[in-house]
Specification:
This is Thioredoxin. The chain has 14 helices and 5 strands. By secondary structure, it is α/β, with parallel strands linked by helices. It has 3 domains: 107 residues, Glutaredoxin, CATH 3.40.30; 78 residues, Serine Threonine Protein Phosphatase 5, Tetratricopeptide repeat; 83 residues, Tetratricopeptide repeat domain (Serine Threonine Protein Phosphatase 5, Tetratricopeptide repeat). It has a 5-stranded mixed sheet, sandwiched between helices. Strand 4 and strand 5 form a beta hairpin. Helix 13 runs antiparallel to helix 14. The longest helix is centred in the middle third of the chain and has 18 residues. It starts with 37 loop residues before the first strand and ends with a helix.
Length: 324
Amino acid sequence: MSDQNPFGGMSNAYATTVQYGGQGGSTEPANGAGQNLIKDTTTAAFTADVIQESRRQPVLVDFWAPWCGPCKQLTPLLEKAVNAGGGKVKLVKMNIDDHPAIAGQLGIQSIPAVIAFKNGQPVDGFMGAVPESQIREFIDRVGGKGDGLAQLAEALTAAGEARTAGDVQTAADIYQAVLEQAPDTVEAVAGLAEILFDSGDTAGAEAVLAQLPEAKADAPTISALRARMALAAQAASLGNPAEFERRLAENPKDHEARFDLAMIQNALGEREKAADNLLAIIKADRSWKDDGARSQLLQLFEAWGMADEATLSARRKLSSLLFA
């Protein structure tokens, strides 16, 4: 393999500043030769053990519980594959019975669940006790197989940092360069398609998504983008939000108007307003349209992403409503 980086020349002058969770964390040093790649974590240590550590290397988080039979099948295979990977990824295990908050924030509804973090963000994952061969493939996909993939990962990091800094064109150029070398790279497909969609080029976004093989078409980032696109199409057919606001002013119990207004607000990027309107329906009449407002709110969470601030805030409000 050539030593030349096929993604060279792209900007890498951006610095990420994403933070997650609470303060504190593990005092264990970063992984290196001979260090343990597997550890348990807590809610307080999650930021250090997962978010900060994932900026140095990919981190897999295994959400499990002592009563979970499939967890007992998966965890030994997962540990074996991580150790065999020789440092490609680190494994952090979290007992959701003792530490339920993080799993709740990430929207995890069944276990075992394994979520991969890179650069402080969840990027991939799977649920259930999968065969050892699939675990190895997952680790290769997340952690890379060699120098070429390390260069690709650097390019994806630069693209993400460019987007964070508001330099969308540079990010798009990097994603395009990545796809010229590796057309089925999920992060590049999702990133470029999202940029196109946000710019109003829905057809272009669809064309980029179509190039992914079927085996990768259900990756979390791809599913989230498709959910966003579906919601936007739904909202576009609803009409003028002023009409629904007028109807609500006349009749605050007009749940149909409130629901449609929430869909339009979401399409306009007004996530908190959209969530609050759906939460208002749930509070007033949980049974409306067979719990339709809650179902729609969960779909919004999927579209926004597990770690989005609007998702986290609305999840807390939803929990208060359901379990008060």
